Amino acid sequence: MECRVLSIQSHVVRGYVGNKSATFPLQVLGFEVDSINSVQFSNHTGYPHWKGQVLTAEELNVLYEGIKLNKVNRYDYILTGYSRDKSFLEVVVDIIQELKKDNPSLVYVCDPVMGDHGAMYVPENLLPVYKNIVVPLADILTPNQFEAELLTGRKMNKEEDALEVMDLLHKMGPQTVVLTSTDLPSKQGDQFLVAFGSQKIVKPDGTNTSQKICIDIPKVDAVFVGTGDLFAAMLLAWTHHHPKDLKTACEKTVSVMHHVIKRTITYATEMAGPGKRPSPAQLELRMVQSKADIEDPAIVVEAKVLQKSLH
Amino acid sequence: MECRVLSIQSHVVRGYVGNKSASFPLQVLGFEVDSINSVQFSNHTGYSHWKGQVLTADELHVLYEGIKLNNVHHYDYVLTGYTRDTSFLEMVVDIVQELKRANPSLVYVCDPVLGDHGSMYVPQNLYPVYKNKVVPVADIITPNQFEAELLTGKNISTEKDAVEVMDLLHAMGPDTVVITSSDLPPRLGDRFLVCLGSQRHVRPDGSRTTERVRMEVPKVDAVFVGTGDLFAAMLLAWTHHYPNDLKTACEKTFSVMHHVIQRTISYAHGKKRLVINA
């Protein structure tokens, strides 16, 4: 497999977020990963302390120029995640547009990180950039419920709403949308959260259809950081292997997440000791220890196909 | 295995040198790798063009401070390679010394990158820093012949010279020395190059012994970049698994190198366009 990914995300010296979360699993799966580090921090910002440096939009451009001057600016995938700077995001968009001109079949996997649980945790001025410029370029989008509602201006209270929101997102650009988590009630009870996916497919006869799925995911009582980054990276990998089968791609992706998270919470709880809540340091994803699960995830969830609709 | 490595090396967006060369293999072998990127360049400097940014000694210190403030500055290994800046290198030494105070059994694997084939390719003022400050705190060093001669002030013309040089290096600090390549005449013919290793042990009865190994490695007709970084990382891994058996640790390390290099040269020749410069 000769597949090259350009991943533009954070680097942390210690732990697994951004490029640290995405790169190793993709490399284990045989992808060539070129990584531009948008920041270099000691660790993620959920620790009591964090220190480091950020890359400016100009410096990003300089790095890309180096790649371009050597005529090696050819990628099959681009992957982006958490950004805090509008001008940085705009340079990312310029880069993607140029790379798509060079390779029209390039797939841009975008995690439109803006916030969660009803509140934005990036500067507000990023929303119009995502909405008007970034999402239209994306091929695969992994918003959570809050981000999907923000991008479409539409709230989700029931399953029907989720399906409509995904269709609205398709209209904005991406053929593949995965709502990575929602507050919608799960049929399996309140120990589960519901995720949704939708993929537009062109049938051999030329008509459009979409496959919509939902997955019930067991909740875990802890705050993990970097899981969204791992999710987007693994969705990239599994949609690559199952380009017309979102059900399987999502089952594999969610299963990998499950194995890594389970291993992590077991370790963290053990490290913290009885009755103590694990610290951010203890909760770092057990990525390296999960290599076998990453390579060949045992499927532990079943996605339900909801409906196929014509457009 | 719960083993944490702090690797302070270059990052390139594309390709495999520095941290890009060292991290993935170590992670595949189950090591936790914390990496401080001393630079971020588009690609290594052997390409037609390269662009990027360097980390200053101050910025390195700031990153280390972040780790320390969170009380997670506990490492089993430190790994360093190519550096061009004396103040950066001196900051690295300060960090290693502090980490060794926090964990006296920490192992510092140091590739004392100074030059090759008779000439230096880093600024000359790095030489005294390596000689007087870095090598004395190193536990494992991987100099080539030129670097070993430079550090000890002694030329290597025979195997006997090489053994003496390795003993001089032991006396400077490191218990494990691998001379990663030399001009010594190979017994297997001129398609091979000679590498040597030496490891000091203390026996259970308190007496000292030194294990010496000699390897002859097939030459490959190409210039590779990043192989030294991969070598140091894999020597870290295999001496971790074979701490008292330098022979096996070196056989595994050189074998990994062989497989990666073979696969690389086959791929490079297989492509229609000549890509060895890219």
From TrEMBL, chain A:
Subcellular localization: Cytoplasm, Cytosol
Pathway: Cofactor metabolism; pyridoxal 5'-phosphate salvage; pyridoxal 5'-phosphate from pyridoxal: step 1/1; Cofactor metabolism; pyridoxal 5'-phosphate salvage; pyridoxamine 5'-phosphate from pyridoxamine: step 1/1; Cofactor metabolism; pyridoxal 5'-phosphate salvage; pyridoxine 5'-phosphate from pyridoxine: step 1/1
Residue runs in coiled coils: none
Pfam family of the protein (one): Phos_pyr_kin
GO molecular function terms listed in the Swiss-Prot or TrEMBL record: ATP binding; metal ion binding; pyridoxal kinase activity
Entry keyword set: Acetylation, ATP-binding, Cytoplasm, Kinase, Magnesium, Metal-binding, Nucleotide-binding, Phosphoprotein, Sodium, Transferase
Cofactor (UniProt): Mg(2+); Zn(2+)
EC number from the UniProt entry: 2.7.1.35
GO BP, sorted A to Z: pyridoxal 5'-phosphate salvage
Reaction(s) the record says it catalyses: pyridoxine + ATP = pyridoxine 5'-phosphate + ADP + H(+); pyridoxamine + ATP = pyridoxamine 5'-phosphate + ADP + H(+); pyridoxal + ATP = pyridoxal 5'-phosphate + ADP + H(+)
InterPro entries linked to this entry: PM/HMP-P_kinase-1, PyrdxlKinase, Ribokinase-like
SUPFAM superfamilies named in the record: Ribokinase-like
Domain Pyridoxamine kinase/Phosphomethylpyrimidine kinase, residue spans: 85-268
Entry GO CC: cytosol
Primary residence: cytoplasm
Iron in keyword set: no
Domain of life from the UniProt record: Eukaryota
Stored NCBIfam families: pyridox_kin (TIGR00687)
Function: Catalyzes the phosphorylation of the dietary vitamin B6 vitamers pyridoxal (PL), pyridoxine (PN) and pyridoxamine (PM) to form pyridoxal 5'-phosphate (PLP), pyridoxine 5'-phosphate (PNP) and pyridoxamine 5'-phosphate (PMP), respectively. PLP is the active form of vitamin B6, and acts as a cofactor for over 140 different enzymatic reactions.
Quaternary organization: Homodimer.
Similarity remark: Belongs to the pyridoxine kinase family.
Protein name: Pyridoxal kinase
Native source organism of the sequence: Monopterus albus (Swamp eel)
Organism placement in taxonomy: Eukaryota, Metazoa, Chordata, Craniata, Vertebrata
TrEMBL record, chain B:
Record's keyword terms, sorted: Acetylation, ATP-binding, Cytoplasm, Kinase, Magnesium, Metal-binding, Nucleotide-binding, Phosphoprotein, Sodium, Transferase
Cofactors, names only: Mg(2+); Zn(2+)
Residues covered by the Pyridoxamine kinase/Phosphomethylpyrimidine kinase domain: 81-271
Subcellular location: Cytoplasm, Cytosol
E.C. no: 2.7.1.35
Keyword check for Phosphoprotein: yes
CDD domains reported for this sequence: pyridoxal_pyridoxamine_kinase
Pathway where this protein functions: Cofactor metabolism; pyridoxal 5'-phosphate salvage; pyridoxal 5'-phosphate from pyridoxal: step 1/1; Cofactor metabolism; pyridoxal 5'-phosphate salvage; pyridoxamine 5'-phosphate from pyridoxamine: step 1/1; Cofactor metabolism; pyridoxal 5'-phosphate salvage; pyridoxine 5'-phosphate from pyridoxine: step 1/1
Enzyme class: transferase
Protein name: Pyridoxal kinase
Organism the protein comes from: Monopterus albus (Swamp eel)
